[in-house]
Design brief:
Number of strands of chain A: 0
Radius of gyration of chain A: 17 Å
Number of helices of chain B: 12
Oligomer: heterodimer
Helix content of chain B: over 70%
Largest sheet of chain B: none
Radius of gyration of chain B: 20 Å
Order of helices and strands of chain B: HHHHHHHHHHHH
Largest sheet of chain A: none
Shape of chain A: elongated
Number of domains of chain B: 1
Largest interface: A-B, 25 and 33 residues
Helix content of chain A: over 70%
Distance between the termini of chain B: 62 Å
Strand content of chain B: under 5%
Distance between the termini of chain A: 18 Å
Structural class of chain A: mainly alpha
Number of domains of chain A: 1
Strand content of chain A: under 5%
């Protein structure tokens, strides 16, 4: 029984993490690429490795969003959903991806910048601090005791 | 002048040749429905609709105004590619033609067909990894070599490339979602990994083409074509992923003696 509980705890966590990753990637695509037009589809300074990383992450996040929601539904029909753990996972996964995107993909691989303005450093700071906050709050929610089943 | 003539021959003859398999497909499908009805086994209307819409997408891609534009305009070409290589195959796989034909055939003939479906050759090419390589690898070859230029100059290349785009797309879809009797089944996890890698390969190629379009294509057309390819691929692969996950979800339905069934098995 204890083993079952940790098993379901992990599944709640991973479903949340995958959904968070997919959600942040989706927000990035719709808001920053499509609506605001801050991000560019392709930036001439993109490195080869950046192109590959972007392609892999984009495809994976696409799949993760769909799969994690089916996973969520699976936990619900088994009555094993731990909603606060799940949300903790969402924040952790979303924050981790945003940090990767903000530091590795934007800065090191130079896929594209957040916005094409002079003081992009301010945008970078806000971006990455939000990511860190998401990770901290996410971890807090996961560590917190009392995982009531929803 | 000579080149110009070649170009015209391609744009006049290739639609006729390419229409043929799709019209044949339509006729065979309807014949099979009639036979199946005579055997008192009615065929669902929604599957018939999938087949008709799928065939229509394929036809729009090879004949008519859009197909004609695609000879000179890269973004139109990308749209036809999307119709022929992704939309048509997905709809036609959902139409379950093999199931229908097996119903219509006599037992002996159906046996021959299933034996062929069980063959090592089919097992090899219907492996999601091989199907992805045939599909995405084919696209890399087409757009990064002078095959793209050859497609507009030579009738044979034009027909081969279009048939390949359709067949590879069909095989790819078939290898990912199991609508029909599938003798060589692969695990959900394996298929999931393969579709992610295939979509990544598709997306990387699309972005690569944004900066490096085929030689004959202008920068502007290349950019639009690349964006159509990128988001079009996302859209169709999203539908395949939803069907894949949905089938996975249904298959892992917990039994009443709630055992810790795992999504991974």
């Amino acid at each position: 029984m204890i083993k079952n509980n940790t098993n379901y705890f992990k599944r709640n966590l991973w479903s949340g993490i995958l959904f968070g990753l997919g959600l942040v990637a989706f927000i990035d695509e719709t808001i920053f690429h499509q609506l605001l037009n801050w991000h560019h589809f392709y930036d001439k300074s993109t490195t080869k490795i950046g192109l590959i990383s972007d392609g892999l992450f984009h495809a994976f996040s696409w799949f993760a969003t769909i799969a994690s929601l089916f996973w969520f539904a699976d936990l619900r029909r088994r009555k094993e959903l731990m909603i606060s753990k799940w949300w903790g996972g969402v924040l952790l996964g979303g924050g981790a991806f945003q940090l990767y995107d903000g530091i590795i993909q934007h800065k090191l691989m130079r896929i594209h910048q957040i916005r094409y303005v002079d003081n992009v450093i301010i945008y970078d700071l806000v971006w990455n601090i939000i990511a860190l906050l998401m990770i901290v709050v996410g971890l807090f929610m996961i560590k917190k005791r009392g995982d009531k089943h929803a | 002048m000579h080149e110009h003539n070649q170009h015209e021959i391609v744009s006049i003859l290739s639609p006729f040749i390419l229409l043929l398999p799709f019209i044949t497909g339509l006729i065979i499908y309807f014949l099979a429905i009639i036979i199946s009805h005579k055997k008192q086994r009615p065929w669902p209307i929604y599957r018939t609709l999938y087949w008709m819409i799928g065939i229509s997408f394929a036809m729009i891609a090879v004949v008519g105004p859009l197909a004609e534009r695609s000879h000179v305009d890269f973004s139109a070409h990308m749209l036809t590619h999307l119709f022929l290589g992704m939309f048509a195959p997905l709809l036609m796989v959902l139409a379950a033609p093999m199931t229908l034909i097996l119903r219509a055939l006599s037992i002996q003939h159906a046996k021959l067909l299933t034996d062929w479906l069980k063959s090592r050759f089919i097992r090899f090419i219907s492996d999601p990894a091989i199907a992805s390589i045939l599909n995405i690898g084919g696209l890399w070859l087409l757009y990064t070599t002078n095959l793209y230029a050859a497609m507009h100059e030579s009738l044979i290349w034009n027909v081969i490339i279009h048939l390949h785009i359709f067949l590879a797309g069909y095989l790819f879809t078939l290898s990912m979602i199991y609508i029909e009797p599938t003798p060589h089944r692969k695990s959900y996890l394996y298929r999931s990994i393969m579709i992610v890698l295939a979509l990544a390969g598709h997306g990387i190629l699309a972005k690569y083409l944004y900066a490096n379009p085929p030689v004959t294509v202008s920068i502007h057309e290349g950019e639009i074509g690349s964006i159509i390819m990128y988001y079009g691929g996302d859209l169709v692969d999203m539908m395949i992923m939803i069907i894949l996950c949905w089938q996975w979800y249904k298959e892992t339905r917990p039994r009443i003696s709630a055992k810790v069934g795992d999504l991974h098995t």
